[in-house]
Write a structure and sequence with these properties.
The structure is a single chain. The protein is of the alpha+beta class. The protein has 20 helices and 23 strands. The protein folds into 4 domains: 121 residues, 2-Layer Sandwich (Beta-Lactamase); 173 residues, Beta-Lactamase, CATH 3.30.450.40; 157 residues, Histidine kinase-like ATPase, C-terminal domain (Heat Shock Protein 90); 126 residues, Response regulator (Rossmann fold). It is 40% helix and 21% strand. The strands form 5 sheets. The protein has a 6-stranded antiparallel β-sheet with strand order 8-7-6-11-10-9, sandwiched between helices. A 5-stranded antiparallel β-sheet has the order 2-1-5-4-3. It has a 5-stranded mixed β-sheet with strand order 13-15-16-18-17, with helices on one face. Strand 19, helix 16 and strand 20 form a beta-alpha-beta unit. It starts with 16 loop residues before the first helix and ends with a helix.
């Protein structure tokens, strides 16, 4: 035995239960993610400081709290069921495995989280360790949510721009929306006075001392808004204290304003004011922020232009003039909606957001709002019969089933919905416009029943329209046409004879101020007449009203619409010449075409496109906007292109319904027409129809 060798110390002594508990608690408290230790009954036994900070509780408050209390009310039953299922078969679930949730903080606010689960079997009952991570702070997710929020705000304002005739409403909302979306303390709209020497504060939030709505600001190039008006371009300021391009008002610095963004407000190429936001925090306003504020400014300018024009109209000119006015608005607004909807569709399909419930919710809300904006744009066009209808065989039973189901969920619960349409043949109409017409009538019926009542839908075939409305049929309606009678009967207040006589007049309404434009039934009337049908009203004061639409029957053997043509009907590598004057629309349509497997060449106008139409180019399709700014129109370009290459497919698009309608009258049958805004699927369907010709 070597006397210098260390004695064998034997195995290390085992940790006592007290030591194990100390080590576990120390590791638990030091872990960088939020941790909760939960028992089989769903009660929190232990929480670390990170969990307390994330959820807004103290560590002691979390202990003993049911874990279901941390789940939003809307999804709590689903979460409880999942927790019970997991308890029956516990297993390790790491981060990034579709475990993204929304957690509810103590103050009721919500936070997007990702959760990992680890079962823990100790000396007692089974436990689960839940690791929680805030993913709302991830840069990519935050950027996606920001874009979705911008789109939602634009769609909201766009809907308001179409729905209201009072520009003051929009003026008041623009600063509110801008300040909220851009997280700024101050936002205001400035309008140039007629003399050009000053700008008036038309609206604002968070205004500084000395500023008020109606107040004047000198229009000089050495002031922030005056500099923007002189430049005619957006201006960003990261730090007002370091600004050298213009003189910063002392009030800015006294109020602690640090960063700012100002964009011009333009009307038909003429700068008429500015929209600005200011923040006390240091901000680097990026390109997306600038484009968002410019979009708000453009929508506001369009509304102001509309209001100015409407002031010049008299009552005898309203029908035609409003049709022309809204057509112009529709072109620009539908271009904007094309950009919004296109980017939303791309955003929705990003892998990073595939399991992000909150972001998907934001994107979905924005998409729905933008679709409503597109629908509202068509309202004013309908009564002037300037819309492009796409008649097809409509399953009346399915349409009414869907409509009444929606109304049951959205109307006042005191209104009972009844439906009787079980043996009705298909009718021939534009399905979207028919649904919109029925919805307009239903909304009017709701307003006539403030205390509740019954709304009854009925559909039946009829060989001809009643004698009393036969004169309403269009002159070009085919003789001997069978019809489908669609009736909506309410138990409301009814109409007097005078009101019934004027019910279809544009702008006539019996509703209070701000509750209607008087365009609802006018829109329905225009649609029915354009569909070669008729409409009748039967009403008794104090009893109720029945509105009946007589829509031409498609016949009992009519083929109902099949599954829509998809992008897979487009040959791979289709050579497309895209001509679009709006840069943002070009980008969206170009992205759609790229994802559909097309090979694209992009031009901003017809003059750029014509030199490219050579035999060597080998284009299969010309996709062009009709209105291409100054110069040659899209219809002229298409005619010249087909003169050179008779086999070239032509697809024309526009946000101005009157343009499409005129193009439809003048264009060859093989030309396809597409209304903006359009989705990628709608574009694919239109291309597929052109390819089949």
């Amino acid at each position: 035995m070597n006397p210098t060798a260390p004695a064998d110390s034997g195995p290390a002594p085992a940790l006592t239960r007290a030591d194990e508990d100390t080590v576990f608690r120390s590791l638990f408290a030091a872990y960088p993610d939020a941790l909760l230790l939960v028992d089989a009954g769903g009660v929190i036994k232990l929480a670390n400081p990170q969990a307390a900070r994330l959820l807004g509780y103290t560590v002691d408050d979390l202990a003993g709290l049911p874990v279901d209390a941390l789940v939003p009310d809307a999804i709590r039953p689903r979460h409880a069921a999942y927790r019970e299922a997991y308890g029956r078969s516990p297993r390790t679930r790491p981060m990034g495995t579709q475990m993204e949730l929304v957690a509810k903080r103590r103050d009721g606010s919500e936070v997007m989280v990702e959760i990992a689960l680890s079962p823990l079997q100790g000396r007692g009952a089974p436990l689960v360790v839940a690791a929680i991570r805030d993913i709302g702070a991830y840069p990519r997710v935050k950027q996606a949510m920001k874009r979705a929020h911008f789109s939602e705000c634009l769609a909201q304002l766009g809907r308001l721009a179409v729905d209201t005739r009072d520009p003051q409403v929009l003026l008041a909302q623009v600063p509110v929306i801008a300040a909220d979306a851009l997280q700024a303390e101050l936002a205001k709209v400035l309008l140039l006075e007629p003399n050009g020497l000053a700008m008036r504060i038309a609206s604002g939030v968070g205004l500084l001392d000395g500023e008020h709505v109606g107040g004047l600001i000198p229009n000089r190039p050495d002031t922030p808004p005056g500099f923007v008006l002189t430049q005619g371009m957006p201006v960003t300021v990261e730090d007002f204290r370091a600004e050298r391009r213009f003189t910063v008002p002392p009030a800015y610095l006294e109020a602690g304003m640090t960063s700012g963004l100002i964009v011009p407000l333009s009307d038909r190429g003429r700068v008429i004011g500015a929209v600005s936001v200011q923040s006390r925090e240091v901000r680097q306003f990026g390109e997306e922020d600038v484009r968002f504020l410019e979009s708000l400014s453009n929508l506001l300018a369009t509304s102001l232009q509309r209001a100015e024009s409407e002031e010049a109209l008299n009552h005898a000119q309203r029908l035609e003039s409003v049709g022309q006015l809204t057509g112009g608005i529709a072109h620009d607004f539908n271009n904007l909606l094309t950009v919004i909807q296109g980017n939303l569709q791309v955003l929705e399909e990003l892998p990073a957001l595939a399991h992000d419930a909150h972001a998907q919710q934001l994107v979905g809300a924005a998409a729905r709002a933008s679709r409503r904006g597109a629908e509202l744009t068509g309202k004013l066009l309908a009564f002037a019969r300037r819309q492009v209808l796409q008649p097809s065989a409509v399953d009346v039973n399915a349409l009414l089933d869907s409509l009444t189901d929606m109304l049951r969920r959205t109307l006042d619960q005191r209104i009972r919905i009844e439906l009787d349409a079980r043996r009705c043949p298909p009718c021939l109409a534009d399905p979207g416009q028919l649904e919109s017409a029925l919805l307009n009538i239903a909304i009017n019926a709701r307003d006539a029943m403030p205390d509740g009542g019954t709304l009854h839908f009925h559909a039946e075939p009829c060989d001809s329209v009643p004698e009393g409305v036969r004169g309403e049929l269009a002159r070009d309606a085919p003789s001997g046409t069978a019809f489908v009678a669609l009736s909506i009967r309410d138990s409301g207040t009814g109409m007097t004879e005078d009101v019934k006589e004027r019910a279809f007049e544009p702008f006539f309404t019996t509703k209070g101020a701000g509750r209607g434009t008087g365009l609802g039934l006018s829109t329905v009337y225009g649609f029915v007449k354009q569909s070669k049908g008729a409409i009748a009203i039967d009403s008794v004061l104090g009893t109720g009203t029945t509105v009946t639409l007589y829509i031409p029957s498609a016949g009992p053997a009519a083929d109902l619409p099949a599954e829509a043509d998809r992008g897979d009907a487009i040959p791979p590598g289709l050579r497309v010449l895209l001509v679009e004057d709006d840069a943002e629309v070009r980008a969206v349509i170009g992205t759609f075409l790229d994802t559909l497997g097309c090979r694209i060449t992009i031009c901003a106008n017809a003059e750029q496109a014509l030199p490219l139409l050579t035999p060597d180019a080998g284009f299969d399709l010309l996709l062009s906007d009709i209105a291409l700014g100054a110069g040659m129109r899209g219809t002229q370009l298409a005619a010249e292109a087909q003169r050179r290459f008779p086999m070239l497919g032509v697809l024309l698009m526009s946000g101005f319904s009157a343009e499409l309608l005129n193009a439809d009258r003048e264009s060859p049958p093989a030309w396809e027409l597409l209304r903006k805004p359009c989705s990628r699927d709608e574009l694919a369907q239109a291309i597929a129809r052109v390819v089949r010709h």
